[in-house]
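Please, structure for the following, as tokens.
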Amino acid sequence: IGRDTDVTVTFSSLLNALTVSPSSMCLNAADLADVALENPCGTGDPVAATVNYDAPTLSATLLLGELATDTSGGVTYSLFLTPQISGQESGALPALVRSTFSTMPE
């Protein structure tokens, strides 16, 4: 993806908005071996971001301010969603969710 692209995740049900935050949804630039999976948003090399939850679209977006200036391209990142995120009717995520992607080189 481009280095200045925000990351959006769409959920299948309405979330408790108070549970969607930088401590429960984050992007980490560290090698996975350096990330404590019980706290992936507080260990390793988390990328500074603001999290916005939009209930009508069931989506949460990481607004990344530092990604474009901190990298020269071709860097691998991991997106983490922690079980701190909970649905209004469905309860907490049953497990840690991780997705990996790389930025495009310049």
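The mean pLDDT is 86. Helices lie at 67-70.
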